[in-house]
Amino acid sequence: MSAPFDQMFQLAMPWWAFVLRACVVYFILLGMIRLSGKRTMGQFTPFDMLLVVLLGNAVQNALLGEDTSVGGGLLLAATLIALNWLVGLLSARSPRVERWVEGAPVLLARDGQVYRDVLRRELISHEDFEKAMRESGCLDMADIQLAVLENTGHITLVPRQKPSP
User: Fold this and answer.
1) Domain of 150?
2) Where are the beta strands (DSSP E) in the chain?
3) Which pTM was predicted?
4) Number of structural domains, the chain?
5) Can you give the CATH number for the domain in which 132 is found?
6) pLDDT, tens digit, for every residue of 14-73?
7) Which residues fall within 8 angstroms of residue 108, CB to CB, at 6 or more apart?
């Protein structure tokens, strides 16, 4: 094989350093994303796309260091995919891990009573809540039987049952 082809796969640091860096960055970013709140992940706007691109660029050097090899990039990609699969597997088998990774649903309203302090804590604007109400057919707060912020960031509203005539 030619020298340039061999150099494409020549790692600038030991293979385990790539794996260690990927693990550290993955779990720190997972924690940071969890701290940013459910609603942040539930709405994917152009600003969120910008954040994803900037995060990728910001952690690139932490992952690769001085390495620019194809082998290093492929090793990191494989490690990140394996970590994601492992976290998914652990989440599926352990409610505790799932709750830490995914979060838990949060009650926003019950029987027409909206918990405004919870809306503020979860970073849900009044406009977002009203939009969710309209989407579920609730025109008035009194029409709400239950409102829940799901761990995906989506707001689920259960309207009160109308009495049968």
Assistant:
1) 106-159
2) 106-110, 113-114, 144-149, 155-159
3) 0.70
4) 2
5) 3.30.240.20
6) 999 999 999 999 999 888 888 877 655 556 667 677 777 888 888 888 888 888 888 888
7) 114, 115, 118, 119, 122, 124, 129, 147, 148, 149, 155
